[in-house]
Recover the amino acids of this structure.
């Protein structure tokens, strides 16, 4: 099945103008007042979460925590699709988890793949050549020196094994993963910023046409003093 290419978003040179939709007036029902929960747990974490665009060095320990908390395989289950279903901390349509996390440490030429079952990193063979130019594209969007780049690479065939028209599920899986990563990065006191670019055409070069495709990039680093 052919992946529907949406293109890579770029900011318009001239800002467009749009008048937002006006909802018809209706009766307003106020909700109960929210009490302050103090400085503990996910509720207060979400209150203080912010995108950060300055990055300190990310230790291996922080990187491992981020990946473990967001993306490790917690359980597997047999399926009729040719591969096992998985449970991970993030939700995924059909428990198919079609998204791989690839990453590049600052200054390193090669990219690594997170192995969610073994909780470790595997070198992606020949990635330095295949991904030439991706770092530059990331830097055009957000220049960074110390940040670790995270590339979300979807394997659409996993989702297509269960669903017709599964593309939107994969994009929503990518959004779910990005959101959980942003929250865990905040909990780890790390700087985190999603990028609008998709990682295409680089991710697609890693396998035969249509097997892999980029569905997002984020950069993460240790806390910066300018935060
Ligand atoms: C899908 C997505 C793409 C984004 N792309 C960029 C980007 O290319 N560059 C950037 O600086 N921030 C990017 N951001 C971060 C947003 O600008 C940020 O979330 C927004 O300004 C709201 O700020 P907050 O995250 O601190 O609440 C992106 C966020 C999302 C969810």
């Amino acid at each position: 099945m052919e992946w529907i290419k949406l293109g890579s978003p770029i900011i318009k040179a001239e800002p467009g103008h749009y008048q937002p939709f006006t909802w018809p007036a209706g009766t307003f029902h106020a909700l109960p007042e929210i009490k302050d929960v103090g400085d503990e747990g996910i509720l207060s974490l979400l209150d203080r979460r912010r995108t950060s665009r300055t990055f300190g060095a990310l230790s291996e320990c922080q990187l491992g925590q981020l990946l473990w908390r967001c993306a490790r395989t917690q359980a597997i289950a047999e399926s009729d699709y040719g591969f096992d279903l998985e449970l991970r901390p993030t939700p995924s349509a059909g428990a198919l988890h079609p998204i791989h996390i690839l990453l590049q440490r600052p200054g390193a030429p090669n990219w690594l793949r997170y192995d969610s079952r073994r909780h470790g990193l595997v070198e992606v063979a020949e990635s330095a050549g295949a991904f030439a130019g991706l770092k530059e594209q990331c830097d055009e969007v957000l220049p960074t020196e110390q940040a670790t780049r995270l590339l979300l690479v979807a394997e659409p065939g996993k989702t297509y094994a269960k669903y017709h028209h599964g593309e939107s599920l994969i994009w929503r899986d990518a959004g779910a993963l990005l959101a959980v990563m942003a929250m865990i990065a905040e909990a780890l006191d790390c700087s985190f910023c999603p990028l609008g670019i998709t990682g295409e055409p680089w991710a697609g070069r890693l396998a035969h046409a249509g097997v892999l495709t980029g569905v997002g990039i984020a950069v993460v680093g240790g806390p910066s003093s300018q935060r």
